[in-house]
Amino acid sequence: MDEVRQIVESYKTIKAKTQYLKNYLEHVDATYKKSSDLLFRAAQIPRDAMWNDPNIINILEMGERQRVIFDEMSSLHSHTVSKDIDDLMVHINEEINLIEKDLGDIIKLNNTRMEQIEQTKNQHRNSWVKGFDPWITDIKLKLAIKNMYQIKETNDLKVYSKMNMYNDKLKYTQEMYLSIISNFIKIQRSLFLNMSDSLNFQIQPNDEPEKYFDAVGEENNEKKECKIISAYNGLIESMSKDLIKSNITVYKNLEPVKYGLVKIKKGFTGDWILLFVAVTKSNWLHLFDFSPLGTSLDKYSQLLFKLKNNLNRGIVSIFDFKKDSMTFVDERNLSNLADEIKDNIDKVINSIYLSVDLRNKNIKLEKDKLIISIDDKYQSGFSSLFGMNIIRLKSFTLTNCYELFFSMTKKNEIPKEETIVEEEFVEEEIPEFIKPKEKIIKVDEENPWVSD
Questions:
Q1: What's a Pfam family this protein contains (predicted)?
Q2: Residue 287: helix, strand or coil by DSSP?
Q3: What is the CATH number of the domain that holds 412?
């Protein structure tokens, strides 16, 4: 009985620690959200639109990357660590209630026998006081004591028969608690690694006067890029006017909500191949063959060799992640590799391996195997039974797997400030000081895609 009570006390200790951890993480999450909000406000501080200071641009981009990281960490905490804590609290309460019920039944039986002993003891005492024959009451008292010890022995056997089960469940609960702490530390480590990466830019010295995007001068890359952007904006503006009239929402920012590298299973029993994945705000998933980038990725050759290792196996074991686990350096290089492919996406845009509309799809996560499965909600029973039309994506780290899963399952609602509205279409005049003296270039000549 004492051993069982010790187990109950151990459960209560874990419960108290878990509650403390829950409160602590709520404050950490509040820090993430507050930091994200302050970084967003900082980016809104007014500045001269004519500046082309690369250092200020780098600082703003750094702040935006950090803001996105804080948002992702907050979402990751809410959907992983916080959820695991809630599950653990439910599990602990269930186990405590189960053990206390078992103990309650035993204590109830023991109390009944103790009452019988007390009753027979009083009867035996009265037989002496009132002159009755104590022989009968003596036998009843001995019998009550004997029954008490028999019940105690039976109850002890019941308890000891369940001790292994109690200990195993307690050990499992302790492992759940330690797993939560481990996942929290991994997320924190990922946060600071990503924060460190966001600081990788070089300060530009002021060796020459600042140049402005619209400055008159010889044709250079900066001016060419400006023309490309102007032509693109003009084309989008023209197209958006027609779409908005048809009540179609047009986004200003079409950057993917999540991207990275995954393995995808080729067919039902086929091999696993390495691809670049991107999930967009329109709830589409795209997979790219990035081999056209060729030698430009040679600096990642060791990492790519490790990622492609064992790709030819048709079956992925639950132990693969432990054998091929990524080092901290590997995780950083994996993030850098994904960024480089994304920055050169125009070079692989014609190498799409597969595109999937994630709406009306069943998306499941096998976090122990780092696998995400996608299938149709309304596929036939035959197809569902034999795994037809199922896409399996395997990630390389737990954090990336969670982030990819939540980007696929979360409904991407576009903030109002990221949508184009009809009131935004304002004709802008060309400032006098940047107009060429020899010839006045009309807007429609500079940008032939603009329609009246």
A1: DUF5098
A2: strand
A3: 2.30.29.30
d(CA 390, CA 408): 15
Q: Are 256 and 280 in contact (CB under 8 A)?
A: yes
Give the chain's domain count: 3
| Domain containing residue 58 | 2-197
* In a shared domain, residues 14 and 52: yes
Separation of alpha carbons 417 and 387, rounded Å: 42
The whole-angstrom distance between residue 452's C-alpha and the CA centroid of its chain comes to 47
> Is residue 435 assigned to a domain?
no
Residues in the chain, total: 452
280: its two tokens: 């967009």
- Closest C-alpha to 342, from 297, 396, 283: 297
My answer on whether 303 and 155 are in the same domain is no
Measured torsion, CA atoms of residues 132, 135, 138, 142, in degrees rounded to the nearest 10: -160
- 74: domain CATH number is 1.20.1270.60
pLDDT tens for 8-42 read 899 999 999 999 999 999 998 999 899 989 988 98
Whether the CB-CB separation of 393 and 364 falls below 8 Å is answered with no
Element spanning 274, H or E? strand 272-279
The 10 Å Cβ neighbour count of residue 155 is 19
> What is the rounded distance in angstroms from the CA atom of residue 16 to the CA atom of residue 89?
10
Q: Please, are residues 293 and 347 in contact by the beta-carbon 8 Å criterion?
A: yes
